[in-house]
Amino acid sequence: MPEFDEEFRRLFALYFQPVFSFFLRRGFPREECRDLTQETFLRVYRSIGRFRGEANVQPPIDPVLLALSLGATFVARGFSGDKAQLVPIIKAGLRHNGFALIDVISPCVSFNDHESSTKSYRYTRDHFHDAASVDFVPLRREITAPIDDGVVVVDMHDGSTVRFRKVAADYDPRDRDAAYAYVREHQAKGEVVTGLLHIDERAPDMHAVSGTIERPLVDLPFDEICPGSAALAELMEEYR
User: Fold this and answer.
1) What is the domain partition of the chain in residue ranges?
2) Which end of the chain offers a freer environment for a tag, N or C, measured as fewer CB atoms within 10 Å?
3) pLDDT in tens, 39-65
4) Most distant CA pair in the chain: distance in Å?
5) Shortest CA distance to 96 belongs to which of 79, 77, 76, 69?
6) Buried b (16+ CB within 10 A) or exposed e, 63-98
7) According to the model, what pLDDT value does residue 101 have?
8) What pTM value is reported for the model?
């Protein structure tokens, strides 16, 4: 099958380095990484006839749906490339009294990789003992994409695409069941919904739920925090 062989050669040329880097990051010697990479492609070549076109048969776990199911009272999702939407969401989540979960879709980019940074690859290599050889992660351009009305398709660094959809202007985030159905509906279309998905403004904060005192624990004297065995025995007696 010369046409298939040509397609496989293109596949090999395109993905050899990513697969090789995968093994290299796990600490294998370079020569062994090459052998493992070639073995991987050999197995692909031998089993390609059984491939049914399914990239992943296991559905992903959606943290937004999980948060809605568990009772979170502030649930939102944003894209790191759309800070005009993401920043207000984070500020609102911090001000929310109840439990807030914000799912941020963010491409993996090289972080703080400059000469004066103590988090750069060069600083790490110069100041730490390498337990294993790791490959260089090249800098990538920042992906930005304002998400307006409708669907916005964003290309990621690995060539994959993500279809974002911002919630409509008339979307009501106060109905938990409707929010769950809304996310599922667009998930079935291959779309990732962004924006404030659910909020319950009546939710109390953890201090109100737990009945904690106004003063920080660090300011309380030891005898109030640990009143002794007699006070503990009295407390336990209330639960008998």
Assistant:
1) 2-50, 63-199, 212-237
2) C
3) 888 888 777 777 666 666 677 789 999
4) 86
5) 76
6) ebbebbeeebbbbbbbbebbeebbeebeeebeebbb
7) 96
8) 0.57
